[in-house]
Amino acid sequence: MKRTVIIMSVIALLLVLVAQHQGGGDLVLQGFQASWSMLFPIFPVLAAAFLAAGLISELISPELIKQWLGRNAGWKGPLFGTLAGALVPGGPFFFYPLIATLYVSGASGGTVMSFIAAKTLWSVSRLPLEIALVGLELTLIRVAITFAFPMLAGLLVNGLFSSWSEKIRGDVEQLQKRRAGGRDD
Question: What are the CB-based long-range contacts (under 8 Å, 24+) for 177-185?
């Protein structure tokens, strides 16, 4: 995480220098105002997402998550991951902290993959906009073509990549421990 912050800070600094060169202090100020106007509305979503993820990790026992969403849940984990991914509202600032928390708490890699695939392919909250912009027929064709993919992806991850799944879970756990301990390498 620290590396990401450094890289993004260097990019931002370079952009400030380019803006200063092209338009002076006024352009730099406009850039800061534009960034604030983007950050201000999204900040409550970020705060709520991290609060929800933290509360879920404390309220739902790892045993329950493993039972319903873990590797031994069989096809139920990817099924519930698919349904949750399709129905959970919000963008990546909400669902990635949520899914990382579930993953560390014992959800299988297949459940996580099903959730992410369904969220990106089926998000129910996006359907009205999609129908309005591209029409019902094209939306139904897309849904029909992608219908089985989230569940299938989850089952494949559980069946073919379970050893990778455990390594990835360990990596996610390390990331969360470093953040909780204030170390962001």
Answer: 178/1, 179/1, 183/2, 184/1, 184/2, 184/5, 185/1, 185/2, 185/3
In a domain, 171, yes or no: yes
Residue type at 29? Answer: L
Rounded Cα distance between 95 and 59, Å, is 17
Alpha carbons 104 and 127: distance in angstroms, whole number: 30
Q: How far apart are alpha carbons 173 and 163 in whole angstroms?
A: 16
Q: Whole-angstrom Cα distance, residue 112 to residue 115?
A: 5
Distance, CA of 17 to CA of 157 (rounded, Å) = 45
57-90 pLDDT tens trace: 788 787 878 888 888 888 999 999 999 998 888 7
Examine residue 59 and state whether it is found in any structural domain, yes or no.
Answer: yes
Domain-embedded: residue 116:
yes
Structural domain for 107, as ranges: 43-180
What confidence tens digit (pLDDT) does each residue in 11-57 have? 999 999 999 999 999 999 999 999 888 888 878 877 887 787 778 77
CB–CB of 71/158 below 8 Å? yes
- pTM, rounded to two decimals: 0.69
When pLDDT is averaged across residues 106-124 and rounded to a whole number, the result is 91
* Residue 137 falls inside a structural domain: yes
Domain count, the chain: 1
